[in-house]
Design brief:
twelve-stranded antiparallel beta sheet; eleven-stranded antiparallel beta sheet; 5% helix; single chain; AttH-like fold; 4 helices; mainly beta
Length: 384
Amino acid sequence: MANIHDITRDQWMLRGPLAKKGYDWWWHSLTAENAKTGELKPFYIEFFTCNPAWKQPEPVIVWNDPAKRQAGVLPSYLMVNVGFWGEPKGQLHRFFSLYDVDIHKNAPYSITADDCFCSETHTEGTVSVTDEEVKEHPEWMSDAGTMSWNIDIKKEIAFHVGYGASKFFRAINAFEMFWHAEGMKTSYSGEIILNGEKYIIKPETCNGYADKNWGGDFTSPWVWLSSNNLTSKVSGNKLKNSVFNIGGGRPKIYFFALDRKLLGEFFYEGKDYEFNFSKFWTLSRTKFDCWETEDEIHWHVVQTTKDAKLDTQIRCAKKDMLNIRYEAPTGYKKHNRLWNGGNGTGTLKLYKKSLFGKNEELIDEVYAEGIGCEFGEYCDLEEL
């Protein structure tokens, strides 16, 4: 569905069974300019909630404590997770008991914990972790540093996945992991202070993205690619009304895992090209491969419908990326090599298909920069 906004999908979902075993997070990623040098740097801000039914006066973190898991203890907290890619890079985590968090559950949502706040239109806060705290609290899964932010949010183009995240399927918790990108293309303005350095966020250069995920567990493999920093290689023009978004992995419906599948959309200069396996009448098909070399992570995704084809090839340097850290609502940390970056680059070739898909005509070949990118599969800690 082309640019259909639905803020009810952004409301807090941890009710019913998901209150006892579930996560729900709001994610924002963007590019900001160093106030002194003009250097562009990508950042992310995430508000991650987990298992409100088991809340305690202090945040409960379980992943590195086998005794807690054996006793049946489950994690419960709000984690404010902020990060930055490139050089330097890092992720900073601040935990709150859900007793100390004010959540407006219905649309439009808002979440407040001390000086940290997030809503559809604004986010602000501070996360500060010292070197000593990193050593004393390995369960925080955090690097050391300080980041504060004050940012206005305007969500311009949405990625609506259709009935897969509808009210009915949400009510019966049909999928293990749900996704909605209310701000597939988002305009941000404001500032970030990272370790004393000021960064300015401008709508025209922010390359902004906002989405949310929720469910009872994560997916493996885990794939995400998105950017609106796009230039036509055919015309040489900047594509100012375009954005692409690809995500998924191996969806689970209850206990049944589907074959490797991705959802995708290319909003190209006001025209929508959607690749959604749940819309069978479009004859949507996807093939993808992700691999790791010594220095880079690579993605190759080919998506087709009866009317269009999108061939996407992306790469990102490992030196610019993070192994982002989450524990599942079960208390296990199975994603120990979840590569996550904001500096990906690559090309997208968009084709129009005709004569029942036999003929392909190139619409545009597009160069993408500042790509938000993610790939990971479950692995044991011993594999690191």
